[in-house]
Every structure is written in C-alpha cells, then in structure tokens.
Amino acid sequence: MDKVVISPDELAEIRVQPQELRIEAKLPSPIPIWAKVAMSALVLVLPLLCLVAIILRVAFRTQPPRTRYAWTGFLCTLLVVSGLINSVATVFVLSVGPLPAIMSSGLSELDEKSDFPALPAKSKMSATQVSEQLRPLVAVITPARRNWFSHQDVPSAGFGAGVLLRANSAGYLFATAKHVADLGGDGKSRKVLVSMASGVWANAEVIARHTTKDLALIWMPRLSGEGEFAQPISDHGDVLQGESIYVIGHPEGLKFALSSGIVSRVDNDTLQISAPISPGNSGGPVYDDAGKLVGIVSYTMDKSINPNAENLNFAVGAGAFVHESGWEFLGNGRARLLEFQKASVSKDQIKGSQETGSVQSTSH
Description:
single chain, 8 helices, elongated
C-alpha cells in the first residue's frame, strides 16, 4: 500500500467551520430548598438524622435515578457533617467538664469504715480469713497523668498494688513499691491515684521514697468519718525461712487476687517467696498468717531473660517502715512515718503486755 503524504500547504488550506454552542436548559434540583433547610437542622441530632435518612431511602426507592442519587448524596453529606460536629462536641464536653464516676476527691469506702481488723490475730488465720479481713486493706495504685484537654489528673496505663499502713482522723498512709509510684515517670512526681474495690479513683501524693529499697509511702487526706488502724510490722529479724505467707495484689489486672506460699529465703531486707506473683502484684503486701506485714512485693525473675527461672519471686522486707533512716521525705512525710511508727510500736507493746499478763495469771 502506498503512503499518503500530506504537505503543510494542504493542511493550511483546511478551514475549521465554527459550531454554534448549544446551551442546555438547567433542570431544577430534585431537592426543594425548604427540604434542605429542614434537613440541615438535623445535623445537631445524629440519631434522629440517621432515622430520617433510613426512612427517606426507603421512601425514594421507586423515584427516578436522578432523584434517588441527589437525595443519597445530600443525606451522605449531612451524615458526615453531623458525625464531625457530634465528635467535636463530645471531646469538648469530656475535656472541659468534670470527670465522670471514675474520679473522686476521697475514698468513701475508707471514710465510711470505722471498724478495722484487730491485728496481729490471736491465732493463725486460714486463707479464707486472710482474704476476708486483709483484702479490704489493699489498694490499686497508679501514677497520675495530666489530661492535656482538661488539665485534670487521670489514671495511667500501668498500675500496681498498695497496702494501708495507717488510718486516723487526718488521713490514710499507704505503702507501695517505688517503681509502681514512678511508673513511666522520672521518679520525682508526687501525684498518684488510689482506688479500692469500688474502682473509684482518688488523688493522693507520694510523701517518701526509700533511697536504696523499692519502697514508697503515699498519703491521702480523710474527708469524713472516724476509725483508727495501724498495721503491725514484722521486722526482718523476725522473719523466718519457711514460714507461711500470703500475697494480695492484682496480677495481670485480676484485682485483689490472693496467693499463698512460704518465705523461701531471707537475705537481709530481701525476701524470696514462693507465692506466685505477676505484673500487677508489685507494691502489694506480703502477710504472715497472723496478719503482720512481712514485706512489699518487688519483682519476679523474668523467664524471657533467664528461661531456667521458675517461680523466683522477691519482696522487700517491711522492716524499713519501722526505721527512719534511708528515706527521702517530701512534704510532711517524716511526720507521717514517725506517727505510724509510734502507733505501731504502741500497739505491739500493748499486745506484749497483754500476753505477759496472760502468762503470769496462768502461772499463778
């Protein structure tokens, strides 16, 4: 086939005939103005808008495609705008408004509690008795973090346990592990949140950290009620290898779980215990069968680091609470610790004199 060659001169001779532009008639919108205005007001009420959108979709199923597509696009736009408005409004209300039921200025469970267990018990307690009498003394502890919307304190992601050492008309003294009070922080923050069985959080402050041991003291003011309590302490010299112990804590988020075991080894102020513990037990109490505080749960050997480690759990001896040395105090921390020591010693002296009197009367 021969090629067809067109020269530039031939192209120049071609004239393009201009065509007349035809203006199409603009069809009126299938959605009346009054309907747009009425429907637009519903963006403030998302549930009602959703209901109306479903009804209109069903009602217009027999309408021409142009009408159906116009209403579908209009309804989708309204739903998107309504969703954005309601989301922004919800975030604003939750940010600037008061926190709901998870926060409180105090712990009503303790404020309303006037009768505390008489410790140490006169006879050995069973595991059931330990759970019934000592579990109400255990708390959930978490560092407070600042909500950048409302500038209010809210719970952190991590938490541990704590134990009530002292209750009086002024407030409550709790003990926990230092690393629990400082979770995710720099070890200088004083703000923590405390919760009991109800799950309502209350503000508290760190008033002391031990310089060499994994221990911290927390203080929370009392808002109402009366009730005196001082937790008896078993000093490290009184702790014996092989004695029975009980641990109460929140392993893996299982709140107020009880485990039992023995003191496997005593190394100065460090206790190796056989009672199972997991993350969430840290800071929780180690009790003996008389209800004395033997130690505070500190850590467990990580099997991912040492696969041969089996149930190697450790606690810090509670003897540090009856000694003033080694503490770094904040605010009135020293006065609170001395107050507890005085109450705890007086309680032990009273019990000792009662036992002595009992022995003397028996000998007579």
